[in-house]
Design goal:
Layout: E1 3-5, E2 20-26, H1 37-53, E3 70-79, E4 94-103, E5 108-117, H2 127-130, E6 139-149, E7 160-161, H3 182-191, E8 202-214, H4 229-246, H5 251-255, E9 258-266, E10 275-285, E11 288-300, E12 306-315
Antiparallel strand pairs: 1-2, 2-4, 3-6, 3-9, 4-5, 5-6, 6-7, 8-10, 9-12, 10-11, 11-12
Keywords: Acyltransferase, Transferase
GO molecular function, one term: acyltransferase activity
Domain LnmK N-terminal: 23-194
C-alpha cells in the first residue's frame, strides 16, 4: 500500500486540534477485490493515524510490563451507497481519505474515516455531517478500538485490556454522546444482532443456515498469531456465499452485490486450530426483491463462546438499485 500523508505530521488537518490526517491513495491490486483487502487497508489507516497523532507506535506498542499490546478492533461499521462502495473499487482508482480520532480514554479510541473519489473532498470530518451518511460519493467508516494483550502466552483466548506506555489521547476531541457507538455495540453483544427488532416490511429469505469454518493457519492469522481482524469480514463473506448458493443464485450475482451497511462487533479471538460455528439468518423486503438484511453470529464450536456478531444490509441485485 502506498499512502501520501498530506498534512506532514498530521497535526490538525486544517482543524488545529491534532486529530486529523488526510491521505491521497492510489488503489493498487493488493488493495481491492471481492475480498477483505480494502478493509485491511482501512484498519492500517486507523493504526497509522493513531501512531501519527498519539505519540505511540501502534505497530510496536508495549505495556508497563514490557508485553506487546495491540490496538484491537471491537466495532467496525462501513456505510456506503450503490455509487461508492467497497466492492466497487478497482485498480487505478484515486481516493482521498480523511481520518479523525476521538478520545475515549486511555484504553480505547474511535476513528472516523471518509473515503471519496479524488477531487470530491468535503473538508474536515464533522460528526454531525458524518452521521447523516448523506453523501452517495462517500464511504463512511467507524472504527472503535481497544488496546489488548494476551493473558497467557500462546493463547488467543481471554485477551485483556492493556494500554501502551506513552499513549497520548487527552488532546483529542470528545465525540458528542448522541453519536457514541457504545449503545450500538452493547446491543449487538447482548442481543447477538445489531437489529432493534425486524421492520414490519421484512419477511424471512431462507431458513437459518449453520456452517462450520475451520480456521486456516496458512491464511487467517496475522503476524502475531491472532485471527486477523479483516479475516472476520472474509469469513462472513464465505458464509454469505453459501447462503447465496442455498438460494440457487450464481456467483456472478454474488460478485455484483452491493453492501450498503456492514456492522461488526468483535467479541473475541480464536486459536489457529479452532473451528468456528456460523449461523446466518436473512430477511428480504416485502415486495422489494433484492433488498436484504443478513445477520451473522460466529461462535467457537467446541466452547460455544461467541466470537463476533455482524449485521449487513445488502442489495443482491447490485446496480439494479442505483436509486437506493
Amino acid at each position: 500500500m502506498s499512502v501520501i500523508t498530506e498534512n506532514a505530521g498530521g497535526r490538525g488537518g486544517g482543524l488545529g486540534d491534532g486529530s486529523t490526517v488526510s491521505r491521497s491513495v492510489l488503489v493498487k491490486p493488493g488493495m481491492c477485490g471481492h475480498n477483505s483487502l480494502f478493509v485491511g487497508n482501512l484498519g492500517d489507516w486507523t493504526w497509522e493515524t493513531v501512531s501519527e497523532l498519539c505519540d505511540t507506535n501502534a505497530f510496536d506498542a508495549t505495556n508497563a510490563d514490557g508485553s506487546p499490546t495491540y490496538l484491537s478492533f471491537y466495532y467496525f461499521h462501513i456505510r456506503a451507497s450503490p455509487r461508492m462502495h467497497v466492492n466497487g473499487l478497482t485498480f487505478g482508482d484515486r481516493l482521498e481519505v480523511g481520518s479523525r480520532l476521538f478520545d475515549f480514554g486511555s484504553e480505547s479510541i474511535l476513528t472516523l474515516h471518509e473515503v471519496r473519489p479524488e477531487g470530491a473532498r468535503a473538508g474536515p470530518i464533522d460528526p454531525e455531517r458524518f452521521y447523516r451518511f448523506a453523501d452517495p460519493d462517500c464511504i463512511y467508516v467507524e472504527n472503535y478500538n481497544r488496546w489488548i494483550t494476551r493473558s497467557r502466552p500462546g493463547s488467543n483466548e481471554d485477551l485483556v485490556k492493556s494500554s501502551p506506555v506513552g499513549f497520548r489521547h487527552d488532546h483529542l476531541p470528545k465525540l458528542p454522546d448522541e453519536y457514541s457507538p457504545r449503545r450500538i455495540y452493547n446491543h449487538a453483544r447482548n442481543r447477538l444482532t445489531f437489529l432493534d427488532g425486524l421492520p414490519g416490511d421484512r419477511v424471512p429469505l431462507a431458513p437459518r443456515l449453520t456452517l462450520d469454518y475451520p480456521i486456516e493457519a496458512s491464511r487467517d492469522l496475522n503476524g502475531v498469531g491472532l485471527l486477523y481482524f479483516a479475516t472476520y469480514f472474509s469469513i462472513i463473506d464465505w458464509a454469505l456465499l453459501r447462503l447465496w448458493r442455498r438460494l440457487g443464485r450464481d456467483t456472478a450475482t454474488f460478485l455484483d452485490r452491493v453492501v450498503l451497511d456492514h456492522r461488526l462487533c468483535y467479541l473475541g479471538n480464536a486459536d489457529a486450530d479452532s473451528v468456528l460455528r456460523i449461523s446466518v439468518e436473512a430477511w428480504e423486503k416485502r415486495g422489494g426483491a433484492g433488498d436484504e438484511i443478513v445477520n451473522v453470529v460466529i461462535r467457537e464450536r467446541d466452547s460455544g463462546r461467541t466470537v463476533a456478531v455482524s449485521t449487513l444490509h445488502v442489495l443482491s441485485t447490485g446496480g439494479a438499485h442505483d436509486d437506493a
